[in-house]
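Following up on my earlier thread - several people asked me to post the actual chain instead of describing it. Fair enough. Here it is, all 431 residues.
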Amino acid sequence: MDPSKQETNQKKASKTMAKKETEEFQFVVYNTMTQQKEVFKPKTPGKVRMYVCGVTAYDFSHLGHARAAVSFDVLYRYLKHLGYEVTYVRNFTDVDDKIIRRANETGEDPISLSDRYCKEYNIDMSDLQCLSPTHEPRVSGHMEQIKDMITQIINKDFGYVVDGDLFFAVDKFPNYGKLSGQKLENNRAGERVAVDSRKRNSSDFALWKAAKLGEPSWDSPWGPGRPGWHIECSAMSAHYLSFKFDIHGGGLDLIFPHHENEIAQSCAACEESDVSYWLHNGHVTNNNEKMSKSLGNFFTIRQITERYHPLALRYFLINAHYRSPLNYSVVQLEGASDAIFYIYQTLKDCQDALLQLQEEIPNDGKPAWTTPDVKECISKLRNEFQVKMSDDLSSYTNWSLSRNIEVGKQFVDHAKEEATKATKIIGNSIP
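Reply from S.P.:
Thanks for posting it. Predicted structure:
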């Protein structure tokens, strides 16, 4: 081969390799367990297994629930964008003290009441353009898996029975608190369930609750009853994803005690239990106080979407980094509504410009939109987007809005310019 040609080919190969390297990004996520950002590496190359704690379905869901759903929907979409095959599991809690109390108030069957609100939740998720998870398991449909896991825990001496109730003995699990850094004495006893003096340790939590009059119950080796709150997620995540999977997500308020208890249960049932990355989204606040049903300071998703387009709400929810708090305000919702209008107006302008470029330019036979300037503009936007998103899904909203509109306007201007050139050649005119 001619030395000059060989040198030219080497330079081309070098440029191609450099370009490839700049287009490949390491996806980095913040792991609550290690309290630092880590390069994401799934346990099985090319495949991601992700479990996210869903809602306790006894009422219409509020903005806090919406933020968790949208945050992990963005993650789900980005993982798919990166080419991963994603198994996404998000549960429904349809057996719970709160559901039973609401059903008693309304005179409904608890499972029927919860089923109704599960359906309402999915309507809200559809409005917010959240993709459906791969699996949406419910507690009531996984009693066998739950009982099997409790049996494993009891057989390994991590639990004990009192009057038909089963409790997890946190003293038996030396690593309890490793996710949250909380000490046993800080466990919020009495927050979700009443304090029980029968426990060996106030931090011990229920695995199985003996049946009570007027409550749904299932047969078990320990007598009729129903599962405690925490065991459901351990059992269902193991059932769909195995004891070893990649991502476990949820709101910040679930870190302790829920996720801490999940880790204890899962590791007690299977020593090899392991979740690679724990991800948690920040709260939605109202006057800088966490928005929740228990505080009575919440707005339901439905209340907001009755006044604003659902995509405006989605934009509002991703207007801050997913780990940061997001304070509710009408001003921000109005701004989100305006932003959505500008995004779709830009898309419409781009579509109108493309309609003028359907004919090929006679002098080179290529569509005008594939000119080098346009390709460079698109490539630059794609790279900027991926750099931002690959850093723990950073700054995707404010940045993407301004950049997409900026690039969209550049594209429209360029498209009109090229269309003008083309139509002059073929003898037409653009109004």
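Confidence is low (pLDDT under 50) at residues 10-23, 419-431. That should answer part of your original question.
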